[in-house]
Amino acid sequence: MRHLPLSALQQRFWYLCTAYPGDASPILVLNWRLRGPLDVPAWQAAVSAVVDRHESLRTGFALRDGEPVQVVMPPAGIDTDVVDLRALPSDEREGRAAELLSARTHRLLDLTADPLVGSRLLRLADDHHVWCFTMHHLLADGASLRIVGREIRAAYLAALDGATPGLPELELQYGDFAQWQSEHDQAGDLAYWHERLAGVPPLELPTDLPRPVEKSAHSAEHLRQMSPALAAQVVELSRRSRCTPFMVLLAALQVLLGERSGQDDFCVGTPVAGRVRAEFEPVVGLFANTLALRADLSADPSFADLLKRTRSTVIAGLQRQSVPLGRVIAALGVPRDPGRTQLFDVVFSMRNDTIASVSQLGPLHVEGFPHGHAKVLHDLVFDIWRLDETGLRAGIRYDTALFRPETVDELARRYEQILAAVVARPGDRLSELAARHG
Q: How far is it, in rounded angstroms, from Cα 325 to Cα 129?
């Protein structure tokens, strides 16, 4: 066993998990539906090979003098729990599978006692399985899901042939990142964040219910599909404006939040990959950071001008994304409030599904299996999936202790309305937009 300090990103997440525990842990989930002949021993061997390859997947936590440390266990594989549902009536198996997976992915884990990585295989028929792989967010991030998925594929195909996976040797492990982060001089970048964010006020969105004294961990999700035509207009405006669709979508969200709050100055959080060195690209671990992007809606700009401001803010932030959010918050001296998260209460992200459609894995057809939405630590989380064929799919995860479903539905509708207005007439000032479409 090796004992390692937590990375700065893990320290921040440890605080969030312990300060706002709720009734479920933030768990990353890889759920695959497997149709076709499955070699179960080969699948179990493939999962074990990937777990042994990454130190993060063999890591637990312990407290030393009241402070958490990582405990890295030696390679020993992982048991894939196989549950046979074939004895159930055929029309009940799907529902039972969903129940079992929901119970596995929506539970509160003891960070110092419970296994933080799990593998379960549900057998619905001889040629129909559902596989669930779970990782506590302290161990991994969204990019890690894609790494695990890619390596499981390679390891399974090798196991079918009785071979070892032909995966390149990892130059570094997550512990190397934690050490690099502690030694990396970030004074200049931290100074930027301190200057950029000093004095930013909290976003005061109207809520349906009084804010609890302690942050709630109960959440729900509202989904909304936007048209392919609107998606194409977003892409076209981004092209003309020399920015990305993310910037257009973020700026439109800033307009919405400014309308609702009456503020022209606030922060929105956005997750970033945080893998600033090429050697860390194939490593499973918690590299993802969150940037606090300050909105500036002052002086009633046109949307085109707001987009320029947003573009500059995003580019400058990405250039300094290696500074952990926790260090930024500490440098700013933001007070802790058990009823809300620090610096921002709204998060915006562009997401990629690990498997967007049916794919082939040897004789198996593989597709995603729904597992519900991830836990919310903020008031609102706006998720956007860019789907070229069907348009934009938007999701709003929200704290049910603050917002009612009808309010969130109206927010989603208004966001789409704003987006349609600004891509059609980006030269209009925000006041004209409100007057014409409010």
A: 40
